[in-house]
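Re: the request from the purification team.
They wanted to know what the chain is likely to look like in 3D before they choose a buffer screen. I agreed to run a prediction and write the result into the notebook, where they can find it.
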Amino acid sequence: MTAAEFDRIVERACAEIPARFRRKLKNVVFVVEPEPSAAQLASLRVGRGGTLLGLYEGRPLTARSVSDPFGMPDRITIFQGPHERAARNLAHLEQLVAATVWHEVAHYFGMDERQVRAAERARSGRSGK
């Protein structure tokens, strides 16, 4: 798949974020990269053979204040290669990308990894118990 085709999948996934959440996405940029860097993998302690589908880098909305100075945009990166390798087909790829976008947006809204995983289980109907 070309980078432009994958970009369109990410754009559609972003467009599916409900308006009530999209309106609150301020000073955040979505970026597509082919692969996570070695530094990104190391900083998140992703082990050998592991991978990273997406990454939120910034200050979560819950940690911000109206008195904060202007800052560079937060960044949500979606990695193309890991998604393509994990996907069984185009429909599955689109589902994976949508789930990753939601996951990283949840981090923007202040959810930690445990909270995001619990919300994902609830959204998919799995209790995790």
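For the purification team: The chain has one domain: 3-61+72-124.
Please add any questions underneath this entry.
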